[in-house]
Amino acid sequence: MPNAIFHRGSYLLLPGEFPTYEALMADLRSRELPATYSMIPLLEDNRVRCWTVFKGLCLAPYFLTGYRDEPSAVQISDPAEVYPAQVECLTQEEYNARLRAVINERCGGCGGYKPLSPKVQSLNAYFQHMSLDGVCLFRYESKPAPRSFGQNMQWLGGGFMRNKYAEKDAETMRQNFREWLHLSCDSAVRTTTADGTTLLTIAPKKKELLPPYLTLAVGHYVHSLTGTYRIQPDAQPDTSPDALLSLASPERRDAFRRECKKYGVSLADLTWDGQDDGRVMRMLWEQNKHSLLYPLHEAPGRVILLLMDTAEAMKALRFHTPMLQAHSAAITVHSQYHSRRYTVNFTMPFDALD
């Protein structure tokens, strides 16, 4: 039975005066909107300052008590934005004990696994990766990508802000692309448009599949930071569903997976019922701000994504389970390892496609 709600990216315990989700919603629909309720927020990071032993960190739908248990005023404007959620609240000691048991049961065989010591700090690396129900989207059993494209893109963005990259010539920027993003370009041309926007047109090496799409993602990110600087590939790549999914087709699969590993990306096809009034797309563009993903193709109830940090992007989608599950969301991920179709919920079940 739901004991919490998910509203605009936040988990909140039901107010004490409403024993059920249905009672809260009935009250909400009877009131003039926006309506304000006193509710306890549930956080995955309770922002506890610590040095050697991590505290206050958890993964939904399992949350911690004893840190931020005071209710806050929550304003709700649209009942359609309120989704039911079933959560469990534990003390830090209870959470640690259950996490330790799950790690010992599930983590063997992972390349990142190190046997736990009796010390609490041996759990530090797991609080934001392993859920208490045994879901870890970071597991790897063969050599992982040496980099995250999203992280490298953020470093490049820092260069724009700190080192005045917008003033650099085209050749310098071509070299910066290679240095920061490991993205090799045959050439780069810098121009200025009539409205004063700086336009850098680069020619990614033609022998690879992904660089034109990576350039689109970089261009959007840099423009979001600067407002006056655009980066584009010399030829607009085909972003139709057929063209994008053909990148991971059997005849191209080996080359595609090598490039996924080289750049630290994957391709994902997310579908849902489309009856969401744009809320799913708004959530995805919010994740884009964190350099986790970039929508290459958008249509009602479907988006094809470039995942620029696959594990973190999937973790973000899992966090939004109450909304995505309500809209029957599923996602197929084509990565350096495999192709899998996930049903989006807290347990993230999947079918292996190859």
Structure description:
This protein has 354 residues and is α+β, with helices and mostly antiparallel strands. Helix content is 31%, strand content 23%. The chain has ten helices and 17 strands. Strands 13-14-12-15-16-17 form a six-stranded antiparallel sheet, with helices on both faces. β10 (198-204), α5 and β11 form a beta-alpha-beta unit. α3 (149-162) packs antiparallel against α4. The longest helix is centred in the middle third of the chain and has 16 residues, at 211-226. The model has no long low-confidence stretch (mean pLDDT 93).
Span between termini: 36 Å
Poorly predicted runs: none
Strand content: 15-25%
The strand line-up of the biggest sheet is: 13-14-12-15-16-17
What is the β-strand count? 17
| Large-scale geometry | globular
Please report the number of helical segments.
Answer: 10
SS class: alpha+beta
The main pleated sheet reads as: 6 strands, antiparallel
- Give helix and strand order, one letter per element, not per position: EEHEEEEEEHHHEEHEHHEHEEHHEEE
Measured as a percent range, the helix fraction is 25-40%
Averaged pLDDT: 93
Radius of gyration: 22 Å
In a nutshell, what does this entry contain?
The protein is α+β, with helices and mostly antiparallel strands.
Provide keyphrases for this structure.
alpha+beta, six-stranded antiparallel sheet, four-stranded antiparallel sheet, globular
Topology:
Blueprint: E1 4-7, E2 10-13, H1 21-30, E3 35-39, E4 41-42, E5 62-64, E6 72-76, E7 82-85, E8 88-90, H2 92-106, H3 149-162, H4 170-181, E9 185-192, E10 198-204, H5 211-226, E11 229-233, H6 241-246, H7 253-263, E12 266-271, H8 279-289, E13 293-299, E14 302-307, H9 310-319, H10 321-326, E15 330-334, E16 339-343, E17 350-352
Parallel strand pairs: 5-8, 10-11
Antiparallel strand pairs: 1-2, 1-7, 2-4, 3-6, 9-10, 12-14, 12-15, 13-14, 15-16, 16-17
